[in-house]
């Protein structure tokens, strides 16, 4: 894994010329967005006065229009940023990795992970990365999966199932059963009662109890094969998962299916998107993109996936 010092040098030598060009484009886009807002707000107020309708109605409509225009003005800029900057950061992390800004991990793989049991009605993503990290084939992308329901009036309601980075890698072992590792909230909140509630989760296979107290506080494990689940989640792997959870400081989900390991890391924000209201001529956002991408690529090292202790 490249260091921050190496990134700083790469930023100065390679990224800064492109960022300087993009900064000028960002300012033009920002100017258009500000002008649009300056026009829309007075018009909304005038319409509210003329039609004697509560101002907030027109303000809401104006805000929707403004957000639409902001996204429209930014589209070309965002696309060029990803092509010129994010793609280069991915290559800086590892030359073998291939980046596609408009692609994502397929929904079939997301479903096959068995991590999330809710029905997926809306599925989207971007920033797809594929390649080999030493001996391990990997792919990951940003994913937003949603379930759609309807209220009593028939209106559609969107419920986020998962939003964040979704990662898949070859585990070099063909599993007969399915082992799923989820964030543990029930036991942390309710102690022994929480353990009982976990065992009643009818959507999951059997509850698997393990011998690592710290791991048990952070995660709950379900598996169709108790022996295989304990075999997969060795003492060393549980330690690595705990350290990975501490390192990311985010909700982490894992599963072991077929010969694959799936890892989902929840984020509450869009990843790898340039911020219109923030200058590009600053090392801090580049460092943030590098750390987010490096975290995904670093799963191979963090979970020791290149150590071939099994054969298929």
Written description of the protein model:
Strands 1-2-3-4-9-8-5-7-6 form a nine-stranded antiparallel sheet. The protein has helices at residues 4-51, 55-93, 107-112, 186-190, 192-199, 213-218, 226-232, 235-248, 283-297, 299-302, and strands at 98-100, 122-133, 136-150, 156-170, 179-183, 206-208, 219-223, 252-257, 260-266. The relative contact order is 0.14. The chain has two domains: 4-173 and 265-300, no CATH class; 179-257, no CATH class. The protein is 49% helix and 23% strand. Helix 1 (4-51) packs across helix 9 (283-297).
Fold blueprint:
Blueprint: H1 4-51, H2 55-93, E1 98-100, H3 107-112, E2 122-133, E3 136-150, E4 156-170, E5 179-183, H4 186-190, H5 192-199, E6 206-208, H6 213-218, E7 219-223, H7 226-232, H8 235-248, E8 252-257, E9 260-266, H9 283-297, H10 299-302
Antiparallel strand pairs: 1-2, 2-3, 3-4, 4-9, 5-7, 5-8, 6-7, 8-9
- The strand count comes to 9
* Sheet with most strands: strand arrangement: 1-2-3-4-9-8-5-7-6
Order of helices and strands: HHEHEEEEHHEHEHHEEHH
Major sheet: size, sense and barrel closure? 9 strands, antiparallel
Whole-angstrom Rg: 23 Å
